[in-house]
Structure formats: structure tokens, C-alpha cells
Design a protein that fits this description.
- The protein is 41% helix and 20% strand.
- The chain is an alpha/beta fold.
- Helix 3 packs across helix 5 and helix 6 runs parallel beside helix 15.
- It starts with 5 loop residues before the first strand and ends with a helix.
- Bound molecules: iron/sulfur cluster.
């Protein structure tokens, strides 16, 4: 028996029963909460003819017992039914813990919601289905339906020939304390960066050869990271020259450049982006509280952020500006979030993405997970943010979740109508091919029958460079196979 956690007894013939229980137990933070350190839970799942007995005991006392009737339920739904019962049992045992998304887990909850909308047509039926079968709260069910409808509407004009390209630059000038991205510090040696840029160029050539051959339309080009603007001005110019060679101004509808941290910007870099023909930029303060910027390891002050924000807005008025903020940053309370939101109201970016802090292994903050587990406060922050967005006429149009997201919440992209980021919606829908260039970039090739073929570039920059020939051959083969199946 594993101490201080839960114990499974009489496992049934479910595949991965441990995972089934672990998924639910994790939602209730059994691993994290101090009050459970001295308590052991015994969860019994026993299969009988057409039913499963579920019993949860603690210190010899039965906390919950139920006979889950499976006779009327199709076999492929048995597992989900047991999961739901287990979830409802925990909800009864720990009534104070609000798990708003119920048993709907995974990064892209809207995929299921979109399918249900297609099946039932009526949003009200979908809402009831999500509440009854996945134990979503009424608020989350409504949110999921609204966002799924907005996302579907945004993508309605795109077809199977429309794809996106992502180019990931894995470097940053310093590391933020919450960062879980596979980014590294910008190397000092110019030669290392030159080699990296040559490899990126090779990767771009390979991707464009395929898009040309298959007559695909690059609807969105997204330069992300890391921080793509972290290059020195000399290397930035070289990077932009590569992009100019391969992406003439006319081929894309949406060309986004992430300039996440304003301390990496310069007037020259912005001018080069302008010449390149970008039409969206991300300037991501994450918070507008000076004290928090320091705590999370940002090297710039608030006044620097404002200076650059207004510089971009004044000099490049045709660009759509996105600003990201994060809920749940260390030592931020609801008033801090209110302050950040009120500042956003002042300078009105077209697009605001509201993230909730997610802990991932490898981050400094992960070590301190218990301290930041404050579900109710986070929910209030999310409600406050959503109210602010309404006042700003920003509508939610994409949504995703992460594994260790605080408060079991979600990340939501908001935009003023007409300023949505199509790339974000495409990537979340998994209905459009996205070709990923650079270390740790993901490629998803969508076949005509909806099958998804995934390919990951290695996270390690040295491996990416040394293995590039093999990697390109592998991605190309996968691409050709997936596309061939369409013919
Ligand atoms: S800027 Fe982004 S990628 Fe770079 S360290 Fe900070 S969170 Fe990580």
C-alpha cells in the first residue's frame, strides 16, 4: 500500500484502473493537501454482473458505497460511468472543493463540445449532457458552449487547403520563474546562433516544399518561442532576412510575431517586423503589478512595458496587439488582478489572453504547489476577468486547459470582434494542419478523414541541429502518408 495516498483493492478488469482512479483523485488534490497526510483512502471497485460496486473507506469507516448499474449503458461507456461515479463520490466526501470541469480532462475540452453541438444542434441539450455525463458546473458548460460556437464561427471560412505554420525560437534573455516552456538562455557564441539559423532555414525550406507541392494555402504564420525577439539586432536581422526570402507578404492572412517580453525589443527590430509584413504582435506583461514582475523574474519595469506598448500602438497602428496576463501569480490577490485588468482597460489591446498559472515539473514554482492551491480565490479572479472582458467588448473565442492548472480552471483567448487570432483557434480545433518548425515544435497533419498525425521536433537544440536531416525526412514521410490517404 502506498502511504499517504489512496489504495486500490479488488481491481476490476478495467484497463488501467489505477489511472482511472488517479485521474479523479488528482482532481481532488489528494497528493497535495495537507489534511490528507495522515489519512489513507481505500477505494474498492468490484465488478459484478452488469454492475460495479464502488466503496471508499477511510480508517475502517465506509465513506461512500454505491452499486453502479451498467446494464443500460453501452459497453464503451462503462469506464466513463465508473469515473463519473467516483468523481461524484469524491464530491460528496469533499464538498468544499469545487472541481468545475468535472471529469472532462485534457487540453482541448472544446473538441468534445463541438462534436456534441453538431450532434444535438441545440445548445441547451449540449449543456444538460455536459452537466449530466461529465459533471461540469452549469457555468463551465455554458462557457464551453459559447466559446466553441465562437471558435467554430471564426473557422467556418477555412477549408482543408488552409494550414498554419509555426516557427519556434527556443531562446530567452532570462528565465521567468513560472516558465515551463522548453526555452533556454540565448547562447553567447555568435557561431552557435548562426548554425541554429541555418538549421531553421533548412526546416523552412522543407516545409515550404511540401506546402507548394500539395498546393496548400498558408493562412497563418506564427513566430513564437521562447522569445523570438531575444536575438541581438544583428541576428534578428539575419532571421528576418530568412523569413523575407521564404514568406513574401502576399501569402498569409495572419502573420504574428511574439515579442513577449518588452526588454527584448528595439526600434530597429520593430521596423524590421514591419518591413517583413507582420500584422499581429504579442506583448505580454503577464501582470501590471511592479512587485510581481520582480517576483517572477522579469527584467523590465512597468514603465518600460507602457513605453513599448504605446510606441507600437502609435507607430504601427495597423497591427493587432495581443496582451497575455496570468491569474494566480505568486503573492497576487484579487485586488492585484483587479489593478491589472483596470490598466488593460486603459490601453485596450485588441486581443487579451487570460491564462491561469499552471505548474509543471521543472518550474521553480512547482516546488511550492501547496501554497498556491487556492481554488476559490482563483475562481473569483476568473469571474472578475470575465466581467472586465465583457466591459471591454472582448468575446471569448478559444479556450484550452493544462494538466496542473491552478484551481482546475482554463486559459481563455478574448478579442474584439474581427481581431481574433485564427492561428490559436486553428491549433485548438485540431481540424487544420499545423506544420511546426524549430526545436520542440509540434506538427499536426490532418487527413481528410480527420485522422491526426503528430510529429515532435526534439526539445534539445543541439539534437535538433545534429539530427535535422533525419527529422526532416521523417516529417516529410509522415506528411506524404497522411496526405496520400486523402487521395
Ligand atoms: S519569456 Fe516565456 S518562454 Fe521565456 S522564460 Fe519567460 S515564460 Fe519562459
Amino acid at each position: 500500500m502506498e502511504k499517504n495516498k489512496y489504495f486500490l483493492e479488488n481491481l476490476t478488469d478495467f484497463t488501467q484502473p489505477l489511472k482511472l482512479v488517479a485521474d479523479i483523485a488528482e482532481l481532488y488534490a489528494l497528493k497535495y493537501s495537507a489534511d490528507l497526510l495522515t489519512v489513507k483512502y481505500i477505494i474498492k471497485l468490484k465488478k459484478r454482473l452488469g454492475a460495479v460496486e464502488l466503496t471508499i473507506l477511510s480508517a475502517g469507516e465506509v465513506l461512500f458505497a454505491k452499486n453502479i448499474d451498467l446494464l443500460e449503458i453501452p459497453e464503451h461507456k462503462h469506464k466513463q460511468q465508473v469515473k463519473l461515479s467516483l468523481f461524484l463520490a469524491f464530491r460528496q466526501i469533499f464538498p468544499a472543493r469545487k472541481i468545475a470541469w468535472g471529469i472532462l480532462r485534457g487540453v482541448r475540452p472544446l473538441k468534445l463540445v463541438s462534436k456534441l453541438l453538431k450532434k444535438f444542434q441545440e445548445p441547451e441539450l449540449v449543456r444538460s449532457y455536459l452537466i449530466d455525463n461529465y459533471a461540469l458546473t452549469a457555468e463551465k458548460a455554458t462557457l464551453a458552449i459559447e466559446v466553441a460556437r465562437a471558435q467554430n464561427h471564426l473557422l467556418a471560412g477555412y477549408g482543408k487547403q488552409d494550414i498554419s505554420i509555426y516557427i519556434g525560437i527556443p531562446y530567452c534573455n532570462t528565465k521567468c520563474s513560472y516558465c515551463s516552456f522548453p526555452s533556454s538562455l540565448l547562447p553567447n557564441q555568435a557561431e552557435t546562433i548562426e548554425i541554429f539559423l541555418q538549421t531553421i532555414e533548412q526546416d523552412i525550406q522543407n516545409v515550404l516544399q511540401l506546402t507548394n507541392e500539395y498546393n496548400l494555402n498558408v493562412a497563418c504564420l506564427y513566430i513564437g518561442g521562447g522569445t523570438p525577439t531575444s536575438f541581438s539586432e544583428t541576428h534578428f536581422r539575419k532571421f528576418v532576412d530568412i523569413l523575407k526570402r521564404y514568406f513574401p507578404r502576399t501569402v498569409k492572412r495572419e502573420f504574428t510575431f511574439e515579442a513577449g517580453r518588452v526588454d527584448s525589443l528595439s526600434k530597429l527590430k520593430l521596423e524590421q517586423m514591419h518591413v517583413l509584413g507582420i500584422n499581429r504582435i504579442s506583448l505580454n506583461p503577464q501582470t501590471l503589478n511592479e512587485k510581481t514582475l520582480k517576483l517572477i523574474g522579469r527584467q523590465h519595469s512597468l514603465s518600460e512595458f507602457y513605453k513599448w506598448y504605446y510606441y507600437v500602438k502609435t507607430n504601427y497602428p495597423e497591427w493587432t496587439i495581443n496582451a497575455d496576463i496570468i491569474l494566480g501569480l505568486p503573492q497576487e490577490n484579487i485586488e492585484d488582478v483587479r489593478f491589472t485588468l483596470s490598466q488593460l482597460k486603459e490601453f485596450k489591446p485588441h486581443n487579451i489572453t487570460i491564462h491561469t498559472l499552471a505548474f509543471k515539473k521543472g518550474t521553480e514554482l512547482f516546488q511550492d504547489v501547496g501554497r498556491y492551491y487556492q481554488v476559490n480565490t482563483l475562481s473569483q479572479m476568473a469571474i472578475l476577468a470575465s466581467d472586465f472582458m465583457q466591459k471591454l467588448n472582448q468575446e471569448a473565442y478559444y479556450l484550452y486547459r493544462q494538466h496542473y492548472i491552478l484551481g482546475n480552471l482554463e486559459n481563455i483567448g478574448y478579442a474584439i470582434k474581427g481581431y481574433e487570432c485564427v492561428y490559436n483557434a486553428m491549433i485548438m480545433s485540431e481540424k487544420f494542419t499545423v506544420l511546426g518548425i524549430g526545436p520542440s515544435a509540434t506538427t499536426k497533419i490532418i487527413s481528410d478523414n480527420g485522422k491526426i498525425t503528430t510529429f515532435f521536433m526534439p526539445k534539445n537544440v543541439e539534437t535538433y541541429i545534429s539530427e535535422i536531416e533525419n527529422l526532416l525526412t521523417k516529417r516529410e514521410q509522415l506528411f506524404r502518408n497522411a496526405i496520400k490517404k486523402q487521395e
